[in-house]
Each structure stands twice: as structure tokens, then as C-alpha cells.
Design a protein that fits this description.
This protein is an alpha+beta fold. It has a domain of 179 residues. 29% of the residues lie in helices and 21% in strands. It contains eight helices and nine strands. Helix 6 packs across helix 8.
Length: 268
């Protein structure tokens, strides 16, 4: 029995899919990614090849006026660790963040829990001077909403940490503001700060995030556009439309974004 070696997709397939789901020249795009879910690209499987494939594809579609943002969450203050944007590695944020976070053409925000990295025309503007509130006013997620960013995911569903910003705006009962103190080091200079993080209530068995209702509704009405790429998909929903769907969903069902009564059962 031989092991199949044929490619599942190519860079050209990815470019076509990005355009098909609605990424536009000049867009601000925020992406959660799991590139391995797409299978084997024709160009090769090394980390370096994969990183360049995705970066060049996004840059081609976005053009010189576009901006690409990726999560680089470190959770430093929640773990009692110093946050240094140049030295603190992101947590398990996927291969692309792993390959890009220290590159000079990417800029990292100074959120010691939920930092992001960005490249492109508006990268520095978007990550500069973020507040000491991970999901609050003028956070990166508020800025994505203001830009009506494209939430464009690769290899995973249509969820986004933007959801937590909307939850905080609406004051959902299963989350509450918790303050985390810590040290941030930039260029060798240290400063102490305290950051607000809207955490979920760990004593509430129904509070774990569950975004399948939102994904179902967004796909049903065409708010999420998806295109197959290899063994997986690329999908896109606009930030403001995601907020609209969340507001409507929570009005119908306060447990719209959490397990709720499904806790302890097999979600269906």
C-alpha cells in the first residue's frame, strides 16, 4: 500500500477562495487559522513554505492598502508572567502566528493577555496604544468593528474573539470583569499595569463558550460565506454583521453563545 502524495490545494486555490468569500482590496482582515486542516499544499509542507504561501496569498488579495491581523495571545498576566512583546511567545495560536510574531513587518499590540500581530497599511495604527481592557472600548476588537473588518478564518469555523467584545458591551451575565496585575517590558524598560479581562464564571457549569448556534444562523442567512480549500474551508463574516447576529441571538436566548443547558450533555 502506497502513501498518497498528491496535493490537496495550491496557493492559487487559496487566492481564489479568499476573493470568493469576500476579502476585498484594502480590507482589514482578522483571522483565526488552523492551516493543517486544509491538507497538503502543492508548494510544500515545510513551515517556511506554508507561512510564505499564506502571507503572499493574503497580501495579493488585500493589496498595498490592506491589513492582516492575527491573534498572538500569551495570557501572560493571568499566569503571573512578564509580558515582553519581542520575547514572549504566543500560546497555541497556530503555525502562522508562530512564524510571524517576531518578523519586523508585523507589529504586536501591548495587551499582556490578548495581544495581536498585524501587517499592512493600517497595522501600526490598529495595534498602537491599546487600552488596559482586553475586550473594552477602543480595544483591538472595538477597532475591528469600527473598520467593519472581515473576520476571515482558515481551516476552522466562523467564530472569533470579537464575540467576547460584544458580550462585554452587552453585559452578559455569565462573564464578569476581573483585574490582572503584572509587568510589561518594552525595549528593556519595565512598567507595572493592571488589565481588565471579562472572564467567564467558572462556577457556572453552563458558561463555557459554544458558538455553533451563531455559526448555524450566520451560514443559514448567508452572513458567513465559505469556500472549500483542500480538505477544509475558508470562511468570512463582516464584524458588524457578527455583532448584529449576536445581539439578535442573545435577545432570543440568553444562552445563545454558551453551553447552557447542554452542559454535561453531548451538544447537538
Amino acid at each position: 500500500m502506497t502513501t498518497p502524495t498528491s496535493a490537496d490545494y495550491s496557493r492559487d486555490d487559496l487566492v481564489r477562495a479568499l476573493r470568493a468569500v469576500g476579502v476585498r482590496e484594502g480590507d482589514v482582515v482578522f483571522s483565526h487559522t488552523s492551516v493543517g486542516m486544509l491538507g497538503r499544499p502543492a508548494e510544500g509542507l515545510s513551515k517556511e513554505i506554508l507561512a510564505e504561501l499564506f502571507l503572499s496569498a493574503f497580501r495579493e488579495v488585500l493589496g498595498s492598502g490592506g491589513t492582516w491581523v492575527l491573534p498572538a495571545y500569551s495570557y501572560s498576566y493571568t499566569s503571573g508572567e512578564v509580558f515582553d512583546p519581542e520575547r514572549t511567545p504566543p500560546g497555541n495560536m497556530g503555525l502562522l502566528t508562530e512564524m510571524f510574531w517576531q518578523r519586523p513587518d508585523f507589529h504586536r499590540s501591548l495587551d499582556p493577555i490578548f495581544s495581536v500581530i498585524a501587517t499592512g497599511a493600517r497595522a501600526e495604527e490598529l495595534v498602537r496604544d491599546v487600552p488596559d481592557d482586553c475586550f473594552g472600548e477602543d480595544s483591538i476588537y472595538a477597532r475591528l468593528l469600527a473598520a467593519d473588518a472581515a473576520i476571515c478564518n482558515v481551516g476552522i469555523g466562523s467564530h472569533s474573539a470579537l464575540i467576547h467584545h460584544v458580550e462585554q458591551k452587552l453585559g452578559v451575565p455569565y462573564r464578569y470583569i476581573k483585574m490582572f496585575k503584572g509587568t510589561t517590558r518594552v525595549g528593556g524598560a519595565e512598567r507595572e499595569s493592571e488589565v481588565a479581562y471579562n472572564v467567564r464564571d467558572l462556577d457556572d457549569a453552563g458558561s463555557p463558550a459554544y458558538f455553533m448556534r451563531l455559526d448555524r444562523d450566520a451560514r443559514a442567512d448567508g452572513s458567513v460565506r465559505a469556500e472549500p480549500v483542500g480538505r477544509g474551508e475558508v470562511n468570512l463574516i463582516r464584524a458588524r454583521r457578527m455583532e448584529e447576529l449576536i445581539r439578535a441571538g442573545l435577545e432570543r436566548d440568553p444562552e445563545y453563545l454558551v453551553l447552557g443547558d447542554l452542559a454535561g450533555k453531548s451538544p447537538g
